[in-house]
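Lecture 7 notes: from sequence to structure.
We start with the chain below.
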Amino acid sequence: MKKIAIALLGLILLTGAAWAQDDEKTPPEGWQISADLSLNLTQNAYSDNWTGGEAGSVSWTTLANITAENQLSPKFNWLNTGKFGFGQTHTQNTETDEWEKPEKSTDKIDIESVLKMTLGAILDPYAALRIETQFLDNSIPQKKRVLNPILLTESAGGSHTFYKKDKDLIVSRVGLAVRQHIDRVVTDMVNYDETETETTTDAGLEWVSDAKYTISKDRLRYEGKLTVFQAFYNSEKDELEGLPNEDYWKSPDVNWENWIVASITKYIQVTLYTQLLYDKEVDKGGRFKETLSMGVVYKLF
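Predicted structure tokens for the same chain:
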């Protein structure tokens, strides 16, 4: 099913792009590219006679948000987005004053490509591919794995733009989706030198909503993304039969992300990021993450 889904999505994307390029009514305007890079740094230090058990620490995070959009023709729009982040925290031992090994604090790779027909209908057809992973999986310190695990999502359905003006927009799409959870599992827990790739496939209905809004021009912006996935099929349902968690995969998965970005100066930026995750197969309760950072930002485009 994985190969068929990827092949089908690739065929849709290539066919749509070729059709759009052959449309001679309006010449392509070319790619509209934006890329923001930022570095956030936090440092604490204490003298030797400081009381209270505090420890020195250094935290750093790098973030990159990249968008490439092309109105290929009056009928086709191709939007590609990439969000990348990585950061570590270095902490000083309170007894020896030696610095411990750095702990990962941020790790994110989220790439999405959406090809949409812009017909102005109630629902414009679209096809999308999304890749979610991380740079480094150190859940097992003895065996660090790069780009693991990986979540691939191929979807197709209908999209509707509720609002669009300049950089502001509210767009929502709903369609059928197939997901592959790919995990390189460590099978040798003695030498940690053997891994086995396990793939779980599920399929169902996906709803994705994106919002971008300028609260104050060139000063304050909001961006949000809500993803809800309801599975109707799971490749491991037979293996789960009779277990307490046999029906957990039937519960909807929710991923709600929010960014509030305040530009203090041209190069100084404050960012508040929140994420709410719900996946019953991982945890019965919702998981919440909040990050408040200030750092240097540079706009490449």
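Points to note: The first strand starts at residue 32 and ends at 44. The domain at 2-299 is CATH 2.40.230 (Outer membrane phospholipase (ompla); Chain C).
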